[in-house]
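In the laboratory, one determines a bound structure by crystallizing the protein with its ligand and collecting diffraction data. In a computational setting the workflow is compressed into a single prediction: the sequence and the ligand go in, and a structural description comes out. We illustrate the idea with NDP.
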Amino acid sequence: MGKVLVIGAGGVSSVAVHKMAMNPDIFSDIHLASRTVSKCEAIAASVLERTGIEVRTYAIDADNVAATSALIEEIGPELVVNLALPYQDLAIMDACLATGVNYLDTANYEPRDVAKFEYHWQWDYQDRFKAAGLTALLGSGFDPGVTSVFAMWLKKHKLRTIRLLDILDCNGGDHGQAFATNFNPEINIREVTAPARHWEKIGEENGQFVETPAMGVKQSFDFEGVGPKTMYMMYHEELESLARFVPELERARFWMTFGDAYIQHLTVLQNVGMTRIDPVLYNGVEIIPLQFLKAVLPEPASLGPTTKGKTNIGDIATGEALDGSGEKTFYIKNICDHEEAYAETGNQAVSYTTGVPAMIGAAMLMSGAWKGEGVFNIEQFDPDPFMAMLNEQGLPWTVEELPAPLAF
Ligand code: NDP
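The predicted complex, in structure-token form:
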């Protein structure tokens, strides 16, 4: 048996479901549910055309725990893969506990009314998943996801300790639109307008998060396959789990590239109040400006046909070499081509680089390669079988030694 239920029908889900259908030995029975059933049907039609595999579709509001539990009971999957939005994480975890089914997601829970990315809400489910003998795998996308697995692979094969870690996320793709986001605009804009935070140990003190203004620290970096780009230091959720599972870290930072046009548009939208997440009264109706903005921006899934260029995402880690040869620095990364991703699954590379690791994480649990009772971040499992599947499933990676740690 290999029955899986995927919830959510955006770009990430589309890629994950296509890739599951391409691995029928692991995923023999695929079910897809989301709020708008027509989006599930469109994915199922594309999967059927490309692979000949049938996907069953359903309408569900995953905020409704009772309805989701009933759907899970009806289908009887081994695993629920949550590719809806971070707001649904806790409700879907509750439904999994109610029905005795394993859980996986790619983004940590966020309350709707505060732009806060913290694992504690989901880590609080540890005892309940453990008592039920179930596994919850958190953060099985690219970042979080592959970037954490990259760090753990370096710790297993190259470095005894990681002292400095930088995660560099570059999207060198051009979608031809004046302004659009490559994944859910509401989540994307909440993330980039939040203050930056990085992990740092100062002197003998315990490590702590140091906060700086949003987009306040930037750096130029020459990305292979893309060229020089300006990247901005941001907070990203894997910093929290990496600081916990790589306790020797002295500094961990996350960087993401943005073009000048993106920054200009975002600055104006922020200045005029369009990125606010508190309700405003308009003609007697409460609306949330950021949700209205999402409704007028292009759907990320619609950017696929026009996006050209590459993504380049990886980790640069410095620490004591495993072989006792002193301090070493390694750069481990994947480069993904937007047009190749689109040709394979009908989705651009940002959805592809998230959907493929979601499928691989699901494969790890369904095949029994990763086992455990409780709530796990992806760092806690053996990186090797996951890294092997990345190479086989469209996200090949390379590792190289750099002559010195990053100079900034
Ligand atoms: P989209 O907005 O394209 O898709 C989200 C889907 O979830 C939509 O089909 C939406 O339905 C559905 N949905 C929303 N609310 C509900 C609900 N209450 N019940 C059922 N379905 C619901 O997002 P993406 O595909 O771009 O992203 C999906 C997830 O992946 C997000 O959580 C995002 O944060 C995460 N992500 C993770 C990355 C990583 O590297 N770890 C990178 C990129 C994204 P509808 O169509 O009706 O709105």
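The chain has 14 helices and 18 strands. Keep in mind that any predicted model is a hypothesis to be tested, not a measurement.
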